[in-house]
Design goal:
single chain, 428 residues, alpha/beta, Fumarate Reductase Iron-sulfur Protein, Chain B, domain 2, 4 domains, four-stranded parallel β-sheet, 24 helices, globular
Length: 428
């Protein structure tokens, strides 16, 4: 494959990664956007072919069609699980978005929105916490209903975004060290995250409690920042690199068995810090070492095994796999083993549990119609189970699925797996 990039960009999709695709089509049945749209260019195979044509100079990186089809990808990475050739599609699509960003002139308004989100909100947890609390308050005061009633342009869309938020937002407040209960089995450092630390602080606290109850000493590292996953998904690779460097530096020298993260999207991104910083000679080795220690909380606990037996819970539960936990990190059995360890919990099968709910980082904001279609499909499958509780392990999934169930008039609760374990422990 040869060709000159019309817009030189070191983050353009790798020729070597593109060449791994043999166009067999086994990814097509697993791709949610292909299932909905039925368009070849909205399948992984079709998008990779588009990337190849850009490399060959036959399509410009700023072509509207290229941006459209790459933008409609969820980056759920289900195709990676299905691919027999080991195509690392997530790395390809994120690189393509960086290529598009470099090639396209953005309006002043869009640049302002990107700067507000990626420079001011996500990397600054206290700012994000204030913004989240104001937004949650607006939701509880009925602002979404007012926005719809006004008929203002964009009002309905803004109302939908507010309705995605949880009913409350709590900021994490944890001690620097949470001691293990009983003999120490392991020592870990906990990654707090931006959204988890600012909105789902209760889940972070629950994670520390559950780990400690099972003999794990938890260290909370203060200088850490946003993982950069949302930046990378949006093509903001250099911003993502800077955040990665800050986190690698923050956790340097910590003599722990693992770096624990309880948000699937964050974990998938952090496990790829070595790839993200591979061309940075000063940071490549350090980033790879950091990435090798990252473990999802359910992965770590599932492998370690529960020492403390949870109290019984008489509920019917369905487990929905977060895409970036199942497909991005290949973690499937450990969450199910943890759920099976809760006495009395009745697990019911969920059809298409490995299918994206439409959250996908900021996808439900940038592609609302497609996201809504996928969410309705997910909600229909959940309602078939008759479950009292839907369990997952990612903040975006929690908010997306809960909003869909609420809209459908369902009373089914959505809960993070670690929160459910914590409930079982605290009940006893």
């Amino acid at each position: 494959m040869t060709g000159i990039l019309p817009y030189p960009n070191a983050d353009a999709p790798s020729e070597e990664l593109i060449s791994r695709c043999v166009h067999c089509g086994l990814c097509l049945p697993t791709c949610p956007t292909f299932a909905v749209l039925g368009v070849e260019m909205d399948s992984p195979r079709g998008r990779i072919r588009l990337m190849k044509t850009v490399w060959e100079g036959r399509v410009s990186a700023d072509a509207p069609a290229f941006a459209k089809h790459i933008g409609q990808c969820l980056d759920c990475r289900a195709c990676e699980t299905a691919c027999p050739s080991g195509v690392e599609y997530g790395k390809l699509v994120e690189a393509a978005r960086s290529q598009i960003l470099a090639a396209t002139t953005r309006s002043l308004g869009e640049r302002g929105i990107r700067s507000a989100a990626f420079d001011w909100l996500l990397p600054h947890r206290r700012v994000l916490a204030v913004f989240a609390r104001l937004s949650v308050t607006a939701k509880r005061l009925g602002v979404p209903r007012v926005l719809r009633a006004t008929g203002l342009r964009g009002g309905a869309r803004l109302a939908e975004m507010l309705e995605l938020l949880p009913d409350s937002a709590t900021m994490e407040r944890l001690d620097t060290v949470i001691p293990a209960s009983g003999p120490v089995r392991a020592r870990v450092a906990m990654f707090s995250g931006c959204v988890m630390g600012s909105v789902f602080g209760g889940t972070n606290a629950a994670t520390a409690r559950v780990l400690a109850r099972n003999g794990v000493e938890v260290h909370v590292i203060r200088p850490q920042t946003c993982c950069g996953a949302l930046h990378a998904h949006a093509g903001e690779r250099e911003r993502a690199r800077e955040l990665a460097r800050r986190n690698v530096a923050a956790f340097a020298g910590e003599e722990v068995d693992a770096i624990i993260v309880n948000a699937a999207g964050c974990g998938a991104a952090m496990k790829e810090y070595g790839w993200l910083l591979k061309d940075d000679t000063a940071w490549a080795t350090r980033a790879a070492e950091f990435a090798s220690r990252v473990r999802d909380a359910t992965e770590f606990l599932g492998d370690l095994g529960l020492r403390a037996v949870p109290s019984p819970m008489r509920v019917r539960a369905a487990y929905d796999d977060p895409c970036h936990l199942l497909h991005g990190q290949r973690v499937r059995e450990q969450p199910r083993a943890l759920l099976a360890a809760i006495p009395g919990l009745e697990m019911v099968p969920l059809e298409e549990a490995d299918w994206c709910c439409g959250s996908a980082g900021t996808y439900n904001v940038t592609q609302p119609e497609l996201a809504r279609t996928l969410l309705e499909r997910k909600v229909a499958n959940i309602e078939k189970t008759g479950a009292d509780v839907v369990v997952t392990a990612n903040p975006g999934c929690l908010m997306q699925i809960q909003s869909g169930l609420r809209r459908a008039g369902s009373r089914t609760r959505v809960v993070h797996l670690i929160d459910l374990l914590d409930e079982a422990y605290r009940a006893g």
